[in-house]
Write a structure and sequence with these properties.
This protein is of the alpha+beta class. The chain has one domain. Helix content is 54%, strand content 14%. It contains five helices and four strands. A four-stranded antiparallel sheet has the order 1-2-3-4. α1 packs parallel to α3.
């Protein structure tokens, strides 16, 4: 997968994430609950000052917020570096890194603009609720699974010589004369 394709995926996730969050902020109050599949899935508005699944949400410290912003910037930097160094033919890894980049950027924008992340997807069974999440969180989880898949599942053999498939730096080597 070309790096530009991964960047387009990241941009699509970022735009979808920010658009859906803007709709939720504009149209929902804290008391809104729109059933989509009764007894299983609904739309809500939850503003999470912590990290995934509500962890650290009880801490109102400015240091916690700063730490989360710095962690997000570091994660985005690491994903960009991995994307830059990844093998262009590693489709699952490229897809996964694009999803992670878009999702991490979407949640970072929320954190910088609002001081918290807007979540609105609520999955539940009876009284048990999975912590509310959003498009960015979904993209990060799916992206992480795709990257893990690319690491654990061997790729089928290619017709190119092994040395030309994916040398260090993610660039194909010129064949020797």
């Amino acid at each position: 997968m070309k790096r530009t394709t991964s960047l387009w995926i990241a941009l699509a996730i970022l735009l979808a994430d920010q658009f859906t969050k803007a709709l939720v902020v504009l149209r929902f109050t804290d008391d809104t609950a729109v059933p989509i599949i009764p007894g299983l899935f609904r739309l809500v508005r939850v503003e999470n000052p912590g990290i995934a699944f509500g962890l650290l949400s009880e801490s109102a410290s400015v240091w916690t917020s700063l730490m989360l912003v710095l962690f997000s910037l570091g994660a985005i930097g690491m994903v960009v570096a991995l994307l830059w160094r990844s093998c262009p033919s590693a489709r699952a890894a490229g897809l996964g890194l694009g999803l992670i980049l878009g999702g991490a950027t979407g949640n970072l924008i929320d954190r910088l603009l609002r001081g918290r992340v807007v979540d609105f997807l609520d999955v539940y069974v009876g009284s048990y609720h999975w912590p509310a999440f959003n498009v960015a969180d979904s993209a990060i989880c799916i992206g992480a699974a795709a990257v893990l898949w690319s690491l654990l599942v061997p790729r089928p053999a290619r017709r190119e010589p092994a040395h030309a498939q994916c040398p260090q730096g993610g660039k194909k080597r010129a064949e020797s004369v």
